[in-house]
Amino acid sequence: MSNTLSYMIQINSNVDKANNSFNKFSNNVLGSIDKVQKRLNAVNMNAFIQNVSAAADGINSMNDPGMKLSSSLAELKAITGVTGNGLKEIEGYARQNAKTFGGSAADGVESYKLLLSQLTPELAKQPKALQAMGNSVSVLSKQMKGDNAAAAEVLTTAMNQYGVSLDDPIRASKDMSSMMNIMSKAAADGSAELPSIKSALEQSGLAAKTANVSFAETNAAIQVLDKAGKKGAEGGVALRNVLATLSEGRFLPKDVKAELKAAGVDVNALTDKSKTLKQRLDPLNKVMGDQALVTKLFGKENSAAAIALIQGRNSMDTLTKSVQGSNDAYRQAADIMKAPEEKNKRLQAQIDNFKISLFNGTNGWLGYANVLGNTARDFSNLMPILEGGGKLFSIMTSATKLQALWTGIVSGATSVWTGVQAGFNAVMAMNPVVLIVAGVIALVGTIALVISKTEGWGNAWKHTVTGAKLLFTAYVQTAKAQFNLLVNGFMIGINKIQIAWYKFKNVVGLGNKAENTAQIGQLNAQVEARKKSITDGYKKAGNTAMQAAGEFKAAYDSVKWKKEKKAKTDNGIAAPGIPGTDFGKGGASGLGGGGSDKMKKSNESVATGGTKHNYITIKIEELIGLKADNVSGGKDTAKQSGEGVIDELLRTLAMAGSATR
To answer: Where are the beta strands (DSSP E) in 354-495?
Structure first.
């Protein structure tokens, strides 16, 4: 009888369900790849946009100081007509002023423009005088929160109200410095701040100058009136009216003159311009008790201011002497400039001065780079929309573009996925139903052939599962290494810029050289650590992939061919003999030819499982899960072989089922 065991596979139902399951598996895999690629694309796109934006910001920062200074100088040129070396000299003074006091060179030029417009454009022909006045503006601005424009207005108002001559610009710049110190000291000792002094001078300055009241005493009078509640412009108007009344002299009403004379007040002393304001007010102290006379003399609107000045004349005199010859503005500026914020402003001014040199060195071409950088930023910000629109247009115009899209998605994934791509493309190019039917039939046929010829399938399965896990781990590690490359690559670029900055500080002498060198060392160490992190990430992924390959090789090596045992040529059993008889022709010895032919057939039936049909029918009622299976035919040996086939079939289909979940 033949030892061949035949297998018949009958598939009755649920082919559609199997097909759907395989399609679901395929769609899940493709969807996962698509999600990974979208995330990688998002990271790459965001990094690209950020890099372009950072480059544009860098160009703007490098360009800004030079561009603003150039614009301010062009406006100054238009106002004054100064060109060539004269304009370059003014630019140099503005840049030096910025480095000395902090702020920008463009702000310095704006201060010059205010001085020229408020005083005279002729000052531009004397750059040194303009520089000195600009320095006064910067010094006084320290008491005004760095407001150069406000400081310039205070100084020019004082000079214009007191009619300072500009015929000698150098002398005029010294007068400005003196006035600045007087106002600064008066503001420090009195209650009126610089803006209030300016407002009061706008109303009273010219009258005080005409009455020959010194600038110092005028400031003292403003402080006295401010303390009495006559602040700013109101105090200036009150002072102007009091000075106007004192200057009337002989033109005072007759009754007033008579009353004053009766009180012992010399009217001519009130109008004596050779005397100080305090000396002119002294005689009026005699009539302070006559409220009616004071009101008649100065009028109802100004009587309160007059009384305040008469009563406060000694304080006014003391303050006048205090502010004369003062250097208070420079003292206050020096104290204020010791603050860390002011130091930072001066450091920034030095950096901006270097940027201006770069701008001038490119003859203004850096400004065009600014425009190009901003344009590149605008386009990079639109990239996600443009990219999405391009993909949509590509899909709508031609269905054949879908294949290109698939290729792009797969090729954009990490290198670990490359080995799997060909397999997926081949699978998707075939009919899944055919694959299921042909695959199951071929699998069972192979199992039937191999199961009795090989061994070690348990170890092979174990190594295969381990290898699959390691392969997926390698894929994840590669993705992490790619992201780590993106992040640390960008940070290495930042570190390089920082290193260049500290080296530049050492070259130009900024900061402490030892501290700069220490920072350079730390940054270099960070760069090397980031490089090592990138390298280690890829090494780790590579080692894991090699371990996965080793597991797959071990799985292959675990399956070995069984060693064939040679069957005995005479496996018959001799029929037992009965002494004294010839039954079986065996006699009592049991020796001979191994028994009769009939006995040999019976023996062979015992060994082979009988004389029944030697095929097994496997009826599969449901492909997914194999919920019903029937095995018929054979005895012990056939049953063991059939169970082996079923076991391997179940294990294989279980693998496919787990892959779809």
So the answer is: 454-455
